[in-house]
Amino acid sequence: MFMVKYILRNAFRHKLRALLTVTGVAIAILAFGLLRTLVGLWYLGVESSSSTRLVARNAISLVFSLPISYKERIRQIPGVTKAGAMSWFGGIYISEKNFFPNFAIEPQAFLDLYPEFLLSPEEQKGFLLDRQGAVVGRKLAAKQGWKLGDRVILKGTIYPGQWDFVIRGIYRGAQRSTDETQFFFNWDYLNETLRRTIPRRADQTGIYIIGVSKPEKAAEVAQAIDLTFKNSLAETMTETEKAFQLSFVSMTEAIMIAIKIVSYVVIVIIMVVAANTMAMTARERIAEYATLKTLGFQWYHVAGAVFGESLFIAALGGIAGIFGTFPAAGVIETELSQFFPSFQVTATTIVLQMTAAVLVGTTAAIFPTWRAATIRIADGLRRIG
Amino acid sequence: MAATSDIVTIRNVTKSYRRGNQLVPVLEDISFDIHSGEFLALMGPSGSGKSTLLNLIAGIDKVDSGSIIIGGCEITTLNETELAGWRAVNVGFVFQFYNLIPVLTAYENVELPLLLTRLSRRERREHVEAALEIVSLTDRMDHRPSQLSGGQQQRVAVARAIVTDPAILVADEPTGDLDRVSAGEILSLMDHLVQDFHKTIIMVTHDPRAAEKAHSIRHLEKGLLTDG
To answer: Are residues A71 and A203 in the same domain?
Structure first.
């Protein structure tokens, strides 16, 4: 009981120093949490990908398209339940600042293959019946102020021209992590326009999204699809949605590694700062620790006092940092929703933050604890006055 | 304990410190006895070894050779942990700069040595209040050291030294940081502890006025006792 009281009072003996140290630890833990969340988000697409979906693309590169005629042949392969075309449209709404992902999809196949995008039956019907219909994510609609029935014009970049759409559905995500910032429209609208304007680019799709009956059959089905189109003009490369997403993530792996390193560097910096503070504190109190030893307190009492104080300050900063992470993540999610559709702090991140805080407190305490515990009483008493 | 029996027996004590590669002798072949209930002043110029001798008697430093027997216990054979336990029971300390813990109140400072005993909270309170009563500071028990004068802080330190009822009190320049009036009060208090509570006090001092209060004086010079 005495030790707890002694640690608590010592922690706030120099209020400004304690406040600055706690604030430093809190900011470091907050930054660490946000960076770890960012790293986690990078892999969110991979983690939330379905095990029953395959993606088939041109074997040469994603830049090259596949003929739409492949669709029926893919559908006939045993184990395939659905297949639908999907093309990256790359349209711009008013200006490039308003970036959001937009895709041409086949409505029925899309609705069947993506149960995580929730639409009311009326919205589904409206989308299926309207060639120029589009469904958009809830967050995107809220950001742009769109509502059902609104006309939206996208300026084509890959497919030139002004493209008119009518909002027929605003989807919600089945999970919090579902991306609600996307824009989907009818692939037929794109294709029919291309037939009129650029016929050589018509009847092509960027990728096929393919449903399989059982996840364990995915590899077998993917192999069967690729064999079907072997030695054709456009050979396919079929992989699970997870592998497909990973190929995108791997392109930016270096950035992720850099962010991870920065997140650790932040912790190392605060470790050094906290260690310096604790060393300074222990040095100032050497005579006090010597006095305690003189009175009969053992080395472990003194060590406990120094270690406890360091851990307490780091824990305070850690808790403040963890609590600060949530509003900070909220602000990022709101202000940067075009880049981070969902900026959710996970339980793993909180555990990592707590671990980092404990590590900071422990590491910062090692040297001062050793020094205070091993100081000779006679030497310690000489430090006063 | 009989008033005239020896409570401290020091035999052939030698102590030196290492300064770089050099061994600096501090005490050389010191032998003398201190009687129970004696108020002894150790005097000598700076660097004569008086504080080192006090530290050795109090068990906070180790001899190079020789022996120190206190109350029948040869403390020179005890290890660090045993010495800590021995000090907690047998010795009370009064320092020049009081060495109170600034974040604790006068009461809590006095209570410190009792935290190492098996006394209950209520028993501790009784002991602390009795000790503060002796030093006339019961009305200041909730004050922190920074809220007390130098003389009051030293009285709290004396209360802390006597709260476990040790046989010996060691005081290193107890009046060195005090004004004349406060120094007089502390010396009177120490005299009171010897007269009425039969404590044995070993005091290091530079101050001849402080030494006058002692029953006997030992002089050290260059690590040697100069008065036999």
So the answer is: yes
